[in-house]
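Pasting as-is:
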Amino acid sequence: MKYQHFNWGPFIMKTSCPKRILKRLESDGRQAERSWNHQLAGHLKNQYKYPEVFEQWFYSEMSEIFTGYRQAHCMYHGFEYVPCQLVYQSLWVNFMKPGDFNPPHIHGGDISFVIFVDVPKQLETEMEEHEGTT
């Protein structure tokens, strides 16, 4: 698995997700009906919890990536890798529009992740044209 990590603060890993998983995240996310706004910090209206059956499929499909994260995390800190059973808590989708944002907040548990399923071309162009250091 190819990944990148950042040498500051906590272990943060950047990797890619298989396209078949991205497609299903988007299609099933657009069909999700259970509003999850009341559980989340986001200042946006379109936040939905994935159904349990989808969560089981997703975590099964992503197990190699999560195991890779654990191995890289141990290596980053100089720990011996010891396999463990991860317990997943929640999976939701956000559909953000201009003006929507997530304020600073924390997540419980040991691992948190974000997957950007659909990044507008305009944002990619904006990042490429930025002349600063961020």
